[in-house]
């Protein structure tokens, strides 16, 4: 994400953005929306009509108005996306693979992902512009429960599932006790749900390897009380205020 800075009179660095970006970052709409408003003459900066989306502004110092109403602060945005497999959870991929931002409106650069899912993992991914919220959900100290549906390459017996429940030793230390719900077995595979309160890199895959098997399919189905539900793969929606509150209530030290 591009962001420039300039020195303020008092010597600190101040954020400087193009006008379309500043409006979009304020949570009013996409950059395409902002460009349309600017072109339509609905936007003024310090009282002056500006019709170029490339005009640089500093939202902390410049008075920006849309239809005469001041644009201040920024609206908090919370999005849930059903990440498909094959998409990386980064803004740009040096290897040119599709990214989760390809699935969001107008490139989605007004939000950042709350944690990551592996390339081969699908399911519930939160995106927001609220860094405090992201910290609550991702910092293991707050223990926000994250639930995954797992299909393994071999059958796991109850003893192996119990080991996952109690915690296994990984190279970065023992895992915390986890909730494991055995769903079913096929001839040579096991399906179960696991709920973790920490989010280490490739944690579920490494835990399953620690009990002698391999993950064939991994889907994050829930974070706290929020389930992926009927959201189609590759689609997103905004969270309701109640859902945001529920997520925060599930993340306490
Ligand atoms: N655990 C994993 O192994 N991968 C993910 O993407 C998330 C949790």
Could you characterize the architecture of this molecule?
This protein has 253 residues and is of the alpha+beta class. The protein has six helices and 18 strands. Strands 8, 9, 10, 11, 14, 15, 16, 17 and 18 form a nine-stranded mixed beta sheet that branches. Strands 4-3-6-7 form a four-stranded antiparallel beta sheet. A three-stranded antiparallel beta sheet has the order 1-2-5. α1 (19-25) crosses α2. The longest helix is centred in the N-terminal third of the chain and has 9 residues, at 31-39. It is elongated and about 70 Å long. 29% of the residues are buried. Mean pLDDT is 90; it is low at 1-13. Residues 117-118, 121, 202-205, 218 line the site of uracil.
Bound molecules: uracil
**Count of domains:** 3
The H-and-E topology, N to C, reads as: EEHHEEEEEEEEHEHEEEEHEEEH
Corresponding CATH superfamily of the largest domain: Pseudouridine synthase I, catalytic domain, N-terminal subdomain
Biggest sheet architecture: 9 strands, mixed
Indicate the mean pLDDT: 90
Helix share, percent: 10-25%
Q: Write down the CATH topology of the largest domain.
A: Alpha-Beta Plaits
CATH class of the largest domain: Alpha Beta
Based on DSSP secondary structure assignment, what is the total number of beta strands?
18
The unreliable regions are 1-13
How much β-strand is present in the residues?
25-35%
Gyration radius, in Å? 22 Å
The helix count comes to: 6
Structural class: alpha+beta
Shape category: elongated
CATH architecture of the largest domain: 2-Layer Sandwich
Q: State the end-to-end distance.
A: 32 Å
